[in-house]
Design brief:
CATH architecture: Alpha-Beta Complex
InterPro entries: YbaK/aa-tRNA-synt-asso_dom_sf, YbaK/aa-tRNA-synth-assoc-dom
GO molecular function, one term: aminoacyl-tRNA deacylase activity
Pfam families: tRNA_edit
Helix content: 25-40%
CATH superfamily: YbaK/aminoacyl-tRNA synthetase-associated domain
Number of helices: 5
Largest sheet: 8 strands, mixed
Structural class: alpha/beta
Strand content: 15-25%
Order of helices and strands: HEHEEHEHEEEHE
Radius of gyration: 15 Å
Protein name: Cys-tRNA(Pro) deacylase, prolyl-tRNA editing enzyme YbaK/EbsC
Distance between the termini: 23 Å
Organism: Geodermatophilus poikilotrophus
Shape: globular
Number of strands: 8
CATH topology: YbaK protein
Length: about 170
């Protein structure tokens, strides 16, 4: 008997279907809370994992979808946006603005639209994997599709890959 689909995962799955996304949500047996965990579970390069990171920009949320092989440079993002500071959002803020838990934040399905930057590093991969509303659920997509789904802006959010892009062994 399979476990029932989590309500947030079901909501994200429906939104993806409505948007015409061909890839199906995959519920993993292990966690995808971090890019390394997701890459290991999927047997893909860590750079093909789209981390969903929420930041606070003068009290407003900003979602940055960044490659798992890339670290967001908050000073660079602040300069790009023309603001003084960009700070990581608190766990409470993440839950309030996305309706989803840290480690499972999907690029879509939030209570209100969130301005989004999509890391150009993700374009290096034909297929990228993003969270689907829960730390055990992901879906395959492409860089172009992430831009379309989120209405996001392509952006260089850091300085080159921070980890080697080789494939992580599947567990």
């Amino acid at each position: 008997m399979s476990r029932p689909e989590h309500p947030r995962v079901a909501a994200v799955s429906s939104l993806l279907a409505e948007a015409g996304v061909a890839g199906q949500v995959l519920e993993l047996t292990g966690s995808a809370r971090t890019a390394a965990e997701a890459a290991g579970e999927l047997g893909v390069p860590i750079g093909a994992i789209a981390n969903s990171l929420l930041f606070d920009v003068d009290g407003a949320p900003l979602l940055v979808l960044t490659s798992g092989a890339h670290r967001v440079d908050v000073a660079k993002v602040a300069a790009l946006l023309g603001v003084r500071a960009v700070r990581p959002a608190s766990a409470d803020s993440v839950r309030r603005h996305t309706g989803q838990p840290i480690g499972g934040v999907a690029p879509i399905g939030h209570p209100e639209p969130i301005g989004t930057l999509v890391d150009v590093e993700l374009a290096r991969h034909d297929r990228v994997w993003a969270a689907a509303g829960h730390p055990h659920a992901v879906f395959p997509t492409s860089y172009e599709e992430l831009l379309r789904l989120t209405g996001g802006t392509a952006a260089e959010v850091g300085e080159g890959p921070q980890v080697r892009p080789e494939t992580v062994e599947a567990r």
